[in-house]
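Task: sequence design from structure.
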């Protein structure tokens, strides 16, 4: 049975910290002609800042729909699911913001995120939580965590050497 909370409690914060993957979903203003974006996120990139706020480090990807949608309407949902013996699905609903690393908020967040922010980070995403919802997760299968893929970090390192990463990330921020 689903339970709804106005904010995170200690049990839910511990659940978040134990997860190796989470998902973020955003939607454009023009939902009839565009699509909802749903992205998996890995690595140790997420930080619970307080009971009503979480932030994560966003690495370069194939697009930047999350930031684009956040600039349009701010709606952001994050989902965590347990793939081990204790089933649960946790959703965080609220207002999100894509934050540039060199902005005042970005500089403050970088301190709070500590070593999670590398030179390859595209932006930071912050979620101000308005609603927290848990559900049973009984239909979620078991999966065994095998480790992080290094492919993205390796790509970033190679792109940094050639100068392509700055060009790539600059292209993604244009028009936002």
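Answer:
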């Amino acid at each position: 049975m689903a339970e709804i909370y106005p904010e995170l409690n200690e049990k839910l914060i511990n659940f978040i910290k134990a997860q190796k993957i989470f998902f973020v979903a955003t939607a454009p203003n023009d939902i009839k002609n565009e699509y909802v974006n749903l992205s998996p996120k890995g690595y140790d990139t997420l930080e619970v800042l307080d009971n009503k706020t979480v932030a994560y480090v966003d690495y370069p990807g194939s697009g930047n729909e999350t930031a684009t949608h956040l600039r349009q309407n701010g709606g952001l949902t994050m989902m965590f699911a347990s793939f081990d013996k204790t089933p649960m699905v946790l959703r965080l609903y609220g207002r999100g913001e894509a934050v540039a690393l060199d902005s005042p908020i970005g500089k403050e967040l970088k301190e709070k995120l500590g070593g999670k922010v590398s030179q390859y980070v595209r932006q930071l995403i912050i979620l101000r939580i308005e609603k927290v919802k848990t559900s049973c997760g009984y239909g979620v299968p078991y999966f065994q965590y095998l480790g992080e893929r290094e492919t993205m970090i390796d790509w970033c390192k190679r792109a940094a050497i050639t100068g392509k990463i700055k060009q790539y990330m600059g292209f993604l921020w244009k028009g936002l």
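The chain has a mean pLDDT of 92.
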